[in-house]
Design a protein that fits this description.
The structure is a homotrimer of 480-residue chains. Chain A is α/β, with parallel strands linked by helices and 480 residues long. Chain A has 2 domains: 233 residues, Alpha-Beta Complex (Spore Coat Polysaccharide Biosynthesis Protein SpsA, Chain A); 185 residues, Hexapeptide repeat proteins (UDP N-Acetylglucosamine Acyltransferase, domain 1, 3 Solenoid). Chain A contains 9 helices and 42 strands. Chain A has an 11-stranded parallel beta sheet with strand order 12-15-18-21-24-27-30-33-36-39-41. In chain A, strands 14-17-20-23-26-29-32-35-38 form a 9-stranded parallel beta sheet, with no helix packed on it. The longest helix of chain A is centred in the middle third of the chain and has 22 residues. Chain A is elongated, with a radius of gyration of 32 Å. Chains in contact: A-B, A-C, B-C. At the A-B interface, α8, β34, β40, β41 and α9 of A face α8, β12, β42 and α9 of B.
């Protein structure tokens, strides 16, 4: 038994029409991984050879998995056998096609069969299922679950000793059988030999006979071979994804697992039911996530971090003791230790904040770095800019990085002070310790420690305000 | 039976004190329609004549329904009979008042009676209820539902054959009767003749006798006439709205129905439990709504649209393949095909974006149009402005449309490039291809293809920054 | 019985390792109060003397409670006896330590014992529990609750007459006892005398004997004394907080209570399940809270207020008929009657708005006051500023309150009109009726009714835009 080979067969050829989407249901995302990626992970968890039955959108599915393997390295030590089934004539036909590429495998090899859209099995469930199969020396095992009677799943019919006899599809079930709460969850494990035998015997019986996977159970029982149904303690693991509602249900099941795991790890969540955490996110504790936080993609959070309400953090790194205040939007950003961001801050791709940086409200940062202690606290746009230590960017400062054709760089040294409402017309360089007067438009470089001003002297017209009002009042067409 | 007339009676006279609101509970909104509008729709679904019993805030209720009919055309082919009941002496009294305006109707006419605050019946439920009434040839039918025993609703008492005998109010019920789980849901259908007879007989019995609607059941049974209770499969349909908690419950029930319907239609929702969709919203699939999205009023969404997390879209149109990023706030705005809006964008009434327009973060647009390909990506206020094709509005641009008295217009041609932090003092016109230098205050028109500048030359004071710091450091009272 | 003394003992010495936080679990916040503050309130609700058994982080806990008493006055008329238990050797040992400081108390005194982390008892529950204890003349009462069988709580074993016999810990329970659904909720009330006796007898039995609180029950039954278990109707009241998941559960239980109470009071909530209201918040009805609103700390809301979706209001006052639009962020701010704030507004500490003030989108206000009717509608930063009646702050206005060293004040009189994109360099004063031209940098005071301008004249270079483009096009490295 030590050298037993397990081969997975994933049914991924269906047309997924009930999803009502131009995108195959298998390519829909589910907390950071597509359904097909999750199917691959589940199928390859114990077996090294995975047979993927594809049909509808097969090129897209193949490409998508190949890209996933490249990025994740999850093909290493594994083998994927692509099998095309087109048109999709059902799982029996798919299985026959799978067997044709497994001709060289021995009858003792075990085949694990699953739907490509049923990806909620826990690793521990799979392990127990496999172990039980081998310990009971079953020729065929399948997972079952208990559901309320009013459902359309196949019923598991057991004899008086509790031994599985067969699966009866709901449409063929007698009224008594319909009362059976144990249903077929759709995951099978059986020897390749039995599968070969059952298919050849059943389809030989009559020209028109179609083979159903569940027929193999009756076949095996007819040979007096042991068939075992392992009952899922948590019926949600059997969920298949056929429409948008299923997709949400699956997300909720997985999200509950992820969030519960992080809470037990020590993550404080004000409201896990409104907290989105993708599967690949990493969090060091202590960490505090306020209501409605979203952590997406490969975000990493170091210890001591707080993320404020409704903030969205995607593919970003938040270093130790940094704080993201409410309503912030981060994507591909690095936030240094003890830095403070938000509320209402937007950090776009290429933002790199060092330690103790402050980015305040209504500030957008793109492809820019802030050195230790630098600040931009209010209403600014900082793009394609490098800012030195302890520099202060005044409220309303805009880096004019775009001239309608090219993007240009702004270089700001250490200890620079930029007055409010300034415009820095790139390319431009401000030396260490330079000061820019409020409201200036800086178009040329500033030497270190210089003062740059580009604004007019103030003129005061006494009674000018009064005259302005009198004039306006006369011409005014409406008060608003 | 073909010419059977059905008349609805809606009990809408109550004072709704438990709502603790200056606004009648019937005027509270419920996913885009007020409760009284929903009551009207439910009552007029099968019958063409609706008798509205009003009392508390009757003028407001009348006005509100009249405005609704005008806007929706939902009075067409229908008749509303207003009956004033003041003071509100209960449903028996209300019914007597209703009968007085129905004097010319025949005894064979059927009366459907409902509370004005019980508006969660599904159309299919109503149809089945009516059909069953006629098929069973009942003189009186009512809807019942199964509830947990500890409730205060009237119990449905049936005999050993399962025939309805009477309804016993909870306060009058015996301990055994209190264990009955079938309760009166409060919707009745009976012949006008029976109603007339029951009222005249019961109130004649004793001078002080008050008539209760449920008495009609016992009366009919006394005459050996058939009374039928049709059990609601979904007990939530019977919910009446008496306080703020009920109002929320009703919203949740309706929201679940709406969201489930849209998911089955193919709308992808990351989290339907946090997604608000008003009843009148229209969505073409595919569409993707992220967490916490609100679609309100008469919003229309064409196919291929994605609405980002927490965005609020009210009475707006999002054309095909447009994207609204997170934290955006749209009201009475038109977004063209393939346009991109947000995050943190605010589109106010009168915003009209053509195709492929981009509105970025911290940008407010009001009564303005953007032609194809025009952009305002950062920190801008655009009001009363017309912008031509492919023009680019730099970060921090403000249209100064208000002089304290009037709002003025800004006209911007095609291919105009406005440098950052510019102010456009309206009324002003910028010709095609004009360029405005960063930080300029434009007070006069710019001819096509001209360059407008209104800013000072840059002065650099060497060591000026250093001197500034030394001076400030001396006078500084505190470091902050 | 009139002079019966009740002494509470709170077990607050544990190490709370499962919280996985550097902060003791008792110092974690729970809807505006820390767990230890809630424990104090619960313990001191009926008794005037509270014995706090502390160990882990005892200094922090002591300091925190002392600060709470100072701020709230909740120590008045009460006495707190601090008892240190270090190392934490269990509740029996803690109780012995408590008894040593209660030596002078009479045997008739009653002791209420609770865990410091079990703070969800309703006041009515406590009252009923105490009353029942005295009415039944029990020597020992404890609270029990019904749970699903698969739990790890101690089972309440009753005899055939229903009298409590003992509590059996789950690990010591027989398979039959494990089926008992009534569990020990962990709150006890018993006479000091019994406690003294039980401890001395039980620990004398054997040198190694450890005393468990539940042993006292068996001891009392052995003496044929009455022990009563009062069953909690709502099992969630027994919840103890041991990890982050429990902390969230406790918040949800309390939040449901708070939100339901406010709805019954007449607060309209679009979605109570996403609405956060701290315990100390005060609301006058009518009030309308949209989805995802957070009211924190000591926020007070007067009648007629609406708070828009996702807005966060902390330690602030919203006066009558004021409106906070969506995505606003208020902290320590005062909003005057009929004022309008947001969407996307941020009011920081020291913001003081009088009546009919308007603060619009992307506006930040800090330590500033707005007099009646003043407005700042778009994209502004107003800090350390006083603004007079009916003044209008144009879009993009920045108060330059910081020079890198000090914060300076800006004083703006009545009826002042500030043009868009202006910078006000503080310290600066603008007299009543002054007008500032758009785009001006105001560095010196403006007399009343004067007009201040600090901007350049506009230059127009015909064909300058065209030339600019030709030049840029030539040098352009990439189109973006």
């Amino acid at each position: 038994m030590a050298e037993l080979k397990i081969i997975s067969v994933v049914m991924a050829a269906g047309a997924s029409t009930r999803m009502r989407s131009p995108l195959s249901k298998l390519l829909h995302p589910l907390l950071g991984y597509s359904i097909i990626e999750r199917a691959w992970n589940q199928a390859s968890f114990i077996s090294s050879d995975v047979c993927m039955i594809i049909g509808h959108q097969r090129d897209e599915i193949k490409k998508s998995l190949e890209a996933y393997w490249q990025a994740s390295g999850h093909l290493e030590g594994k083998k994927c056998l692509w099998v095309v089934q087109d048109p999709p004539l059902g799982t029996g036909d798919a299985l026959k096609k799978a067997l044709s590429v497994l001709e060289k495998e021995s009858d003792e090899a075990q085949v694990f069969i699953m739907g490509g859209d049923a990806v909620l099995l826990r690793p521990t469930t799979l392990k127990d299922f496999f172990q039980n199969h081998f310990q009971t020396k079953s020729v065929l095992s399948f997972l079952s679950a208990h559901f309320q009677p009013n459902n359309s799943y196949g019923r598991v019919v057991r004899d008086s000793q509790g031994n599985v006899q067969k699966i009866v599809e709901a449409k063929n079930a007698s009224p008594e059988q319909l009362q059976i709460t144990e249903i077929n969850a759709g995951f099978y494990l059986c020897s390749l030999g039995l599968l070969r035998e059952a298919i050849s015997k059943i389809t030989a019986n009559a020209k028109t006979a179609e083979f159903y996977l569940t027929d193999a159970i009756e076949y095996a029982r007819g040979q007096n071979l042991l068939v075992t149904a392992a009952v899922l303690m948590d019926a949600t693991e059997s969920l298949g994804i056929n429409n948008q509602e299923d997709l949400f249900m699956a997300r909720r099941v997985l999200q509950n697992r992820i969030n519960q795991r992080w809470m037990i790890e020590g993550v404080r969540m004000d409201d896990p039911s409104s907290t989105w955490i993708d599967e690949a996110v990493e969090i060091d504790v202590p960490a505090h996530l306020e209501m409605g936080v979203q952590l997406r993609g490969h975000t990493k959070i170091q210890s001591g971090v707080r993320v404020g309400s409704y903030s969205i953090v995607e593919d970003s790194v938040l270093a130790a003791d940094s704080v993201i205040e409410a309503f912030s939007h981060l994507k591909q950003a690095q936030v240094g230790a003890e830095s403070q961001v938000g509320p209402f801050a937007r950090l776009r791709a290429g933002t790199n904040l060092a330690e103790k940086v402050k980015i305040g409200n209504f500030v957008e940062v793109k492809k820019s770095s802030f050195a230790r202690g630098a600040k931009a606290n209010h209403l600014s746009y900082i793009g394609d800019t490098q800012i030195g230590e302890d520099s202060n960017i005044g409220a309303g400062t805009i880096t004019c990085n775009y001239d309608g054709y090219d993007k240009h760089k702004t270089l700001i040294g250490k200890n620079v002070f930029i007055g409010s409402n300034s415009s820095l017309v790139a390319p431009v360089e401000l030396g260490d310790g330079a000061v820019v007067g409020a409201g200036s438009v800086i178009t040329a470089n500033l030497p270190a420690h210089s003062l740059g001003l580009a604004r007019s002297d103030q003129k005061v017209l006494n009674e000018g305000g009064k005259k302005f009002r009198e004039k306006r009042q006369k011409s005014s067409k409406f008060e608003s």
